Amino acid sequence: MTVNLVLLQLFTGLALGSVFVLLGVGLSLIFGLLTVVNFAHGAFYMVGAYVGVFALAHLGNFWLAMAAVPIIVGGMGLVVERFLVRPLYGRGIDYPLLLTFGLGLVLVELVRIIYGLEGVPFDVPEVLQGAVDLGIGWFPLYRLFLIVVTAVLVFALWLFLEKTSYGLVIRAGASDPEIMRVLGVDISTVWLVVFGIGTGIAGLAGVLSAPMTSVIPDMGTTVLVQAFVVTVVGGMGSLLGAVVAGLLVGVVVSMTALFYPELSDLAMFMLMAAVLLVRPQGLFGRKGLMG
Amino acid sequence: MSDTAEPRPKAYWSRIVDAIARHRALAVLVVLLIFPFVLPYEALASNIVIFGLFALGFNLVFGYTGVLSFGHAAFFGVGAYGTGIAIVHLGLPWWVAMLIGVLAAGVTAMIMGALAIRTRGIYFAMVTLALAQCVYYIVYQMKGWSGGENGLNGVIVGQIDLGFASIDLLDPMQKYFFTLTFVALAIFIFSRILASGFGAVLEAVRENEDRARACGYDVRLTKWLAFVISGLFCGLAGALNAIHLSVVPIEILHYHMSGQVVMMALLGGMGTFFGPFAGAIVFLLLEDVVTTMTTHWQLILGLVFMACVLFFPRGVWGSVLQWVRR
């Protein structure tokens, strides 16, 4: 076991963590504003991968497909928020959760009807094939691409939320929607947009991980659980928390896979249990935001 | 429907519902006793009482304490695996095996509950779901004991000798009444728990957690106890399910199973005594009918789930109660 091997595994963990970051950010953004836990998040991730397959087959261009996925899946999110989630506001925190759980079942089964149970291949374009020398060893280029895309996306999201006036409205809406209404802001539209952004990012996460995992209708099931672990570790409603926890969970999983392979499935749950014992609101969660 | 048009029949129905509510454990029993004779086959009746018990146990946390758990598959599954492993690998008699299953589910609930009650509100659902999935992975990996993805086969209890009588569990009707004996006992105990002071504290926590705390009740301990008791009931349901099916499939631990029990409680009417059984009946009959017509049961399930949340949040029994008491 050399240092280089451990360092390479660290990068593998960061690539894995990047997917967790994207999922966690979407989940956290939606929760932070709408106080809705989106149980269909894994299903949107899966739909993202299938939309990617579909778009690639019809557009024939990987980059166009990549761009189309968040728009299409985000658009689906808009429809879902407007017609399914919105009637439930003010009726208790459990109802949107239960609704999105049902929606997840429907989406998975619909994809099963259209594409069947067999895995669908999703090939990486030639530019992103192969491996690069990081100085510590060879690392798959696609995984590096994944890390970079995630970093760029998170940075863009941060700019949008912190530096634009619409981002200001979103942040204000998260802390006090009532006041925003009084000030004449149409908060319903803000919620709609945020739900769309969150699901769009989930779809993007799905298509980005499509070349690394098999594209099957059930691919969102485990991912949903992993996304929950990330949000619990990071703290609900915190973007920084989702980023740090996503990378942390990715690295912890890949490190246990290296040192104690038999524990790799359980590692993230141990991490979650430890966080719950020490800091139940999550690493970056605010105490008040748990209710 | 206006109240002035026909007040008399309504008052009449209201009296009937009140009478049923007073003798709730008895009422459930009467229905369950005639059950296998009206359903198309006895195995469906056994399924309904088992899942009814599962939903009943779940409802203690969801309906009465007001906390949504998405991890109850773990208790159902551990109860089933505990019983199955004790019979298949340890060769223990059926009643010891069931006891082991129920206790194992209780211990699982103690650990999961201790971690999950550290969080509040919506977090609870996520944490219980994640922990239950952790149980799934653990059982999945203990291939030597649990059979891994193939499930645990050969949980066979053929003949039970009680000294004065013997029960043949290969006969579906006798198996139904064997199962019903345990379910009836559980319903009675459950009814007693709800009627006790502890039951009142549970509802106080549901209605207003802060006020319950201000009244001097230990909210965390109450929630944890409710969680553990709920786990014991669900473990018993799992144990009965293992004996009923003679196998323990790994899917029993998956979070879709947790979703199913949430659905049953929701369909029947959460926080009502009869709701879980009404929900189990509707759910399993629907499943029975739909699966003969299409393989895409999950699609129908999801649509019904969404429709329930959007248009029918009180469920079957909850709607009946609302209608007669309005």
Task: Explain what the structure shows.
- The complex is a heterodimer of chains A (about 290) and B (about 325).
- With about 290 residues, chain A is mostly helical.
- Chain A has one domain.
- Chain A contains 11 helices and 2 strands.
- The longest helix of chain A is centred in the N-terminal third of the chain and has 32 residues, at about 5-35.
- The mean pLDDT of chain A is about 90.
- Chain B has a domain at about 40-265.
- In chain B, strands 1-2 form a two-stranded antiparallel ribbon.
- The termini of chain B are close together.
- In chain B, a hairpin with a 4-residue loop joins strand 1 (about 160) and strand 2 (about 165-170).
- The gross shape of chain A turns out to be globular
Could you spell the SSE succession of chain B in H and E letters?
HHHHHHHEEHHHHHHHH
What is the residue-averaged pLDDT of chain A? 90
The side-by-side strand order for the widest beta sheet of chain A comes to 1-2
Most extensive protein-chain contact, per-chain counts: A-B, 45 and 38 residues
Say what oligomer this is. Answer: heterodimer
The residue fraction in helices of chain A comes out at over 70%
The radius of gyration of chain B is 20 Å
Distance between the termini of chain B: 11 Å
Characterize the main sheet of chain A.
2 strands, antiparallel
